[in-house]
Amino acid sequence: MRKVGVQLVLAAWVVPDLAGRLLARVRSGFPIARMLFAIAVCAAVIVPWKLYETERSRRVEMDHAYNRLSVEAGAEIETLGVSLQTLLDEQEELRSLLLDAGYTVVSGDRLWMRLLATGYSSSVRETDDTPFITASNTRTRPGVVALSRDMLRRYNGQALFTFGDAIHISGIGDFVIEDSMNRRWRKRLDIWFPSREAAANFGIRRVTVAMPLFPVNHNYKNSYTDFPDYSAATSYVSNSVLPQ
Hints:
Number of helices: 3
Number of strands: 7
């Protein structure tokens, strides 16, 4: 477009001077010479102008098409965003309904379920004669939970969980399964607390538990003097959700 504009300016500057010079020579000439002069003048002025108008119209049409496509794309993206959010909300509602009905749900990269959760501490009254040693032969500490035996593979070959599995309890934190509950309990979870008062204050709650579909490595020594370090995932003691 810039090149066409320059041509038009040059033509507007050169043509009048050229026309004045040729006019003096053509006045006494034949009509054919005058006609050729008129054609030359028209070609020098009209052709660049037409080129300029054509290019300008093409650019205007391209701008309009680009703006139209931008508006349409923006509207489609907004519609897709609303549809996606609606699907996510429906998925979350369906997952909640299934969990309430007692189903185990696979969503994303995790397995979800709802369990009754209670708290316990290292006392003989609540455990056995080795209250500081878990069923997996590790020491009790913040971040340890016990599951009912129907949910542990050691006691039930069809169970989903085994000692060493990392789980997440919604609204509370991350834990590792290293202990088991009394055989009379089913579908329950017990969180270890440093004191009986804190365990009692926790009460009984229905919680949502998530376990990664790709569990952590369980190849650690089965000794209470050498257990995996889960300190980075067991900061729940300072969590305001739990009583201290």
